[in-house]
Amino acid sequence: MCQNEVRTRYAPSPTGFVHIGNLRSALYEYLVAKANNGKFILRIEDTDQKRYVEGAVNVIYETLKIVGISHDEGPDIGGDYGPYMQSERKDLYLPYAEKLIENKKAYYCFCKEERLEDLRQEAEKKKIQFKYDRHCLHLSEEEIQRKLNAKEPYVIRQLMPDSGKTTYNDSVYGDITFDNDVLEDQILIKSDGFPTYNFANVIDDHLMKISHVVRGSEYITSTPKYVLLYNAFGWEPPIFVHLPLVVKQGGGKISKRSGDAYFSDLIESGYLPEAVVNFIVLLGWSSGTEQEFFTLSELEKVFDIKGIGKSPSTYDTDKLRWMNGEYIRKKTLDEFIAIASPWIDKALQRSYDKAKICAMIQKRVEVLSEIPDMISFLNDISTIDVNLYDNVKSKCNINEAKRILPIIRDKIMEMDVFNHDSIYIMFTSTAEKLGVKNGLVMWPVRIALSGMLVTPGGAVEIADILGKDEALRRIDLAIAQLVDIDA
Ligand code: GLU
C-alpha cells in the first residue's frame, strides 16, 4: 500500500437483512474510497455468534451486487490483509489483549454472570447507569494465575482512565470530548474466546490499514474507547466520519415494521436499485449544487466528505416514490417492459400485448408494485357505477352515455383495422359528425371499458389493448346496464 492511500471498509455484521442506514454507510465508504482513488474493503464482522444468521453473508454480497458497488478486497476475493471474515481471524485478537494486560491497560475478569446481573439490578434500583465495579482489577497475580490454571472462564476488560478527558476529531461533527469517568471498562475478549465487536473492530481497522472509518452516529459514544485503545497500542487512529441520523417523517427511527427499513423490502416492493441508491446517498449528503439525480459513477467522482451534514435527515417516502417514478420514466420502453413484466404477469389472467400496456402505464407508475391494481380492470370489470358517467369537463352524464355508446359500438363493428390510430380517428370523426367535443365521446367509452374513474390511460389506449372483441363486449354490457336506468 502506498502511504496515505485511502482505504475504507464496510464492516457489516451478518444479522439478516441490510438496513437502509447500514447501506448508506456502505455507499459512503465506497464513495470516499472511489472519489480518492482508494480501496474499498468488505469485512464481515461475525464474532457475535449469538446474532449470527444463516445466509446473511450471502444477503450482503447480493445487496452489494444489486446496488452496483464492488469491493477491492473481501472474504470472497481475498486481498493482502485477509482473512476478511472476523471469525477466521479469531486467534489473532487474544495476543493483542494480552499485550494490553502487560501494559496495565486491560485486566482479566472472572466475574460470573449472576454477580453482574445483581450489579445491574442494583444500578437500576438506584437509577444510575450500570458500570462494572472493577471487582477483578484488584485480584493478585497469584489469584489470577490460580484461576487461569483452574480454567475458570474469564473475559478481558479494557481499563479506562479514572479521570481526564478523551477527545477525538470527527470529520462531520468536529472535536468530540468525553469525560473518561463515564467510560465503562468494556469487554475486549469474551468468555467464548471471541473478541467483542469493539475490540476486533479496532485491531482489524489497524491491521487492514483503514484510513477512514465511516459509520452511523450511534458509534460516536463508543469511539473514545476505541481512541484509548489506539493510544494504548501506540497506533494512529483512522479518520472518523460519523453520519447523521436518519429519521422518519414525524420523527422516530425507520423500522422493520414500517416496511421500508431494509433494502430488500424496497426492491421487493418495486423500487429500482438505482433510485434507492440515489435517494440514500442524499440522506445526509449534498453536492452543494442543485443537482439531485446522480448515477453511481457520477457520485464516484463528486462525492466529498465535506458535503455530509450534521443534522438528522428525514426519510421522506414521498420523495423516494417521486424519485423512483422519475427513474422509471428515464427507462426506454424495452427496459421498462423488462422490469414491469413480472408485475404485469402477476396481475393478469388474460394475455394482452405487454408493450402496449407498458407504453400506457410508464408515464404513471411511481413504484412497480402499483402496477397490478392499476391494470386489474383489464381482466374484467364488475357492474359499472353509473355515476361515473357524470363529468363536468367533458359535459358527460348518464343520458349522454346512453346516446354515445351505441353509436360508438356500431362504429367499432364496422372497423376492419382496429389499432391505436384507427380508434383515435374513429372517435374524433364521430365527435365531429355529432358536433361535440372529443371528450364527450371518449369519457363514456373509457368508463364503459374500465369501470374506473381513474385509469392509467385514455379510451384509445385502453380500447387498443382490449382489442375489438373485448371492447365491443364491454360496451354492450354497459349499454345493457344503462337501458334500465332512467336518468
Ligand atoms: N459491525 C458493525 C455494524 O454492522 C460495524 C460498525 C462500524 O462500521 O464500525 O454496525
Looking at how many chains there are and whether they match, the oligomeric state comes to: single chain
Could you say which overall geometry the principal axes of the C-alpha atoms support?
Answer: elongated
Distance between the termini: 84 Å
The CATH topology name of the largest domain reads Rossmann fold
Helix content: 40-55%
Bound molecules: glutamic acid
Number of alpha- plus pi-helical segments: 18
Give the overall average pLDDT: 94
Number of extended strands = 11
Please report the first level of CATH classification, the CATH class of the largest domain.
Answer: Alpha Beta
Adjacency order of strands in the biggest sheet: 3-4-7
Q: Secondary-structure element sequence?
A: EHEHHEHHEEEEHEHEEHHHEHHHHHHHH
Question: Rounded to an integer, what's the Rg over CA atoms?
Answer: 32 Å
Largest sheet descriptor: 3 strands, antiparallel
What share of residues are in beta strands? 5-15%
By CATH, the architecture of the largest domain is named 3-Layer(aba) Sandwich
The CATH homologous superfamily of the largest domain is named: HUPs
Low-confidence stretches: none
| Total domain units | 4
Decide which structural class fits the backbone.
Answer: mainly alpha
